Amino acid sequence: MALYTFGGTPADVLTDAVGNVVPDGAVVVRRAGTGEPVTALYEVDGVTPIGTLRSDPAGSAAPGAVRLFKARDVSEIEYEYHGPSGGTPVRRYQQARETASAALSTARSALAGPDTRLPLTGGTVTGPTAFAAGAPVTFTGPVSAPGLTDLPGARVFLVTGAVGDGVADDRAAIQAALDAAHTAGGGQVLVPAGRIYGVTDFLTVYEKTTIWAYGATIRAIGNTGILRNFLADDSFAGYEGRGSIQVLGGLWDGNAAHAGVGTVTAMTNVISWMHAADITVRDATVRNTSSAHGIELNSIDGGRVLNCRIEGFKDNSAAGNRGFSEAIQIDLARAGSGSIGLNDNTPARNILIQGCYVGPSSRLGLFGRAFGSHTLVAGTYYDGIQAVDNKIDGTMHEGIYAFGWCRSVISGNIIDNPGHAGIEIAVPDPALGYTLTPYAIAVTGNIVDAPGSESAIRAVGHPTAKLSGVRVDSNTIRSSGGNGLQIEHCVSSGVTSNTVESTASTGIFVNYSDGASVDGNTIRNAGSNAINASGSVSVAITANHIDGTAGNHGIAIGPGADGTNGQDAVITGNKIRRAASAGIRLSANATGCLVTGNQIRRDGGTTANGISLAAGATGAVVMDNDLSGNGWNAATALLVSTAAPITGMGETTALPGTNVVDTDLTPGTALEAAMRPAGRYETTSRLRCGTSSAPTSGTLNLVPIWLPQGLLISNIAFTSGGTAASLPLNCWFTLHDASRVALARTADQTTAAWAAHTTKTLAVAQTSAGTAGSCTTTYAGLHYLGVMITATAPPALVGEGSTLLGATAPGLGATNTLQTTPPNVTGGAFTAAAFTGNAILAYAYVT
C-alpha cells in the first residue's frame, strides 16, 4: 500500500472568505472526485497516525498552515474546513508530491536506456552520456525520449517578485509564471497565499496549465477583468483554443466601482473562457463584478465550475440596463458576445456547475441571474448543461435561466428570493426569424423560496416552438408571488411529486401543453386554482393532494386566453379539500373529460359544489367520485348546468349516478334529489308520500332521517293530512342522535291549533348545549326527528304509512308515553325510551 505526501507548501494555509488565516482549524481530507473521507492519515514519518488533522495554532511560526502529512493509497485529495464563522465548508484540491517525483523517475528511466540518452550537441544520442556532478546543464529545445510521460503537475512555477499589497501592479510577476508554464508546454503556477495581488489588465493563462491560488487574493486595480485564456488578437475556431486549464482556489476580486470604492467601471467579465475544451474553476471566490459576468463560459466544451462562490454585482453600464447579467454565463461565439474570433456560433456544451454559491458581497448587491444564457442563433443549442446542488441567495431576475438549453439537468439547487422566476426554461420567439425546439430537460429536487411575480418554476415555449420532454419533479415551492409551477407551450411534459405551498396565483398552471402529466403533487393554500389546465389536450391530472384555494377551484379545465379549448382531460384519484368554489370545474368548451375516483371535501371551507360543469362542457364522464360529508344534495354536489355528463353505467345522466353524495340513500334518489327544495333534509321524499297516519296521543314518535356533519338546524317541520288535531293540549318536536339521545327540542305549542293539510314548522328552543335557536350536527349519518301530540284526536300526518316492525334495531316509531311536558335536553339529559314496534312513517324535514 502506497503512502502519498501532502501539505507543507506556501499555499497550504487555511483562510476565510476575506483572506484571513484560520489557525487551529480542523481539516477533513476527502478523496478528490468522490468526496469519500480519507481516515488513514499519518505524520510525515509514515508511521505515526493522525487522529484529527488541524492547521498550525495562532502562536506557531505559521498560523493556519497545514503541515506535511501522508495519506494511504490516495494520490489526489480535497481539503475541507469551516471558517471561524461556520457556514458552507471550504474545499481545496491538491495532488500528491509524489506525482512530480513519478514524472522525474519516468524521465530518468527513459534517459538511462542505451537507446534513449541525450546528445551532447544536438542530434541523437547513440552512446552513454554522463554529466559531471554539479555541472550546469542547459536544454535549448524540447527534450523527448521513448517512455517519457508528461504527467500533470510535473512542472511547478512559483510567482515571485510580486509586492502583494493590493496597491502595486503585480500583473507582470504573475504573467511571468504563466508564460513560463506556457513555454514549458504546461505546468502548475503557484500563487503564494496570504497576499493581495493587484493587476491592471487581464492575465492570460495558456493550455495545460493549473493555477494554484488557495489563500491568495487577485484584485483588478485597473479597468478590466482579471483572467482569460486568450490574447486580444487571438482567433480560434470551435473548441480549438487554449484548453486543459484548471484554476484552483483564490479570491478573484473584480473590484467593481461603487460608492467611492473600487476601480472597475467597464462592462467586463472577471474570468473569461472562450473557444476551448476542458476548463475547470474549483474552490474559487469571484467577487464584485462590474456589469458583465463573474465567470463566462463562451464556446467551451467540458467546462466545470465546482465549489465556487460568486458574490456581488454592480451595473455600471451607462444605460443601467444590465440587470439580467449572470454570475456564470453560458454563451456562444458570435459578434457582440465574445471578446475574440472566430464568431462561428460555437456554443458552450457539457457544462457542470456544482456546489456553488451566488449572492451579494459585503459591499455589492445581487446579480441579475445566477446561471444562464441570453443569446442564441438559429440551429444552435446549449447541450448537456448541469446546474446541480448550488445555493442562490437572491437575484434581480431569474435564479437560473435555461435559454436554449437542451438535454440538461437542473437539480438540487436552493434558490431564495429571486426577483422573477426561480428557474425558467425558455426559447427565442420565432418572430426573430428562427425556431428552436429544445427537449429532454429535467428540473428535479430544487427548493424555490419566495420568488417574485412570476412562476417559481416555469418552462415556456411558443406556439410554433414548443419544448418537449420537460420533467419537473420533486421540487418544493414556497410563498410564490405568482404561480407555483408553469408549463406553457410544452409537449409531453411531466409535473410530478412537487410540493407547492402558498402562491399568490395558481398552484400548477398547464397552458397550451398537450399530453402533460400532473401527478402526485401537493398544493396547499393556492391563491387561485390549485391546478389549472387551459387550452391543453389530453392532460392527465392524477393523485394530487389539494388543500385550500383562496379563489376559484381545486382543479379547473378550460380554454386558453385565445379560445383554444381544453379537452380530453383525465382527472382521477385526486384528494381535494377547502376549494373556494368548486372542487373540480369543467369550464366552457372543456369537452370529452373523464372525472372519476376523486374525493372532495368542504371541511370548513367555502366550497360551493363538488364538481361543476359549464354549459359548453360536453361529453364528460363523471363517475365514482366521493362528494359526501359536505351537506350537499345531488344537485349541489354535481352542478351540471345544461350539459349533462354521463354519471353511471349504461350512459345514464341521472344525478348523482355512481357518485356518492350525502343524500344518496336509495337507488331512486336521483329524481328525489332533484325534487328536494334547496337546503332541506327530509325523512323521505315527497314523491313517496301517498297516505297519512295518526300517532297515538301523548306518545313520542321518532322518525329516522339522514343528516350530514356540520349541518345547522334551526327548525323542524311535520305536515298534517286530511284530519286536523281535535282539542290539542301539548305539541313539540325533537331531534335525536342514533342512540335516541335528544339533541334539541322546540317549545310546547300547548293548545295551538293544527289544521288539516298544514305544515307546522317549529323553531328550536333548547339544545343539548344549553343554547336556544339552533343545533349543529356533529357527525354524518342516522338521526331521528320526534313528534309528540296530546289531543282528543291527534292529526293524521302525511307520510308513507305505518308499520309494526319498528322495534328491530336500529328501530323507529313509538317510545315514551303519557307525555305532557317537554323534556329537558340540556347536556344530553333526555334519552327516548326503547321502540315499541308501532311506527308511523311520517314526512318531516329540518332547515
UniProtKB/TrEMBL annotation:
Pfam families: Beta_helix. Keywords: Plasmid. InterPro entries: Beta_helix, Cofactor-bd_rpt, PbH1, Pectin_lyas_fold, Pectin_lyase_fold/virulence. It comes from Streptomyces clavuligerus. Gene3D superfamilies: Single-stranded right-handed beta-helix, Pectin lyase-like. Residues 469-625 form the Right handed beta helix domain. Coiled coil: none annotated. This is Phage related protein.
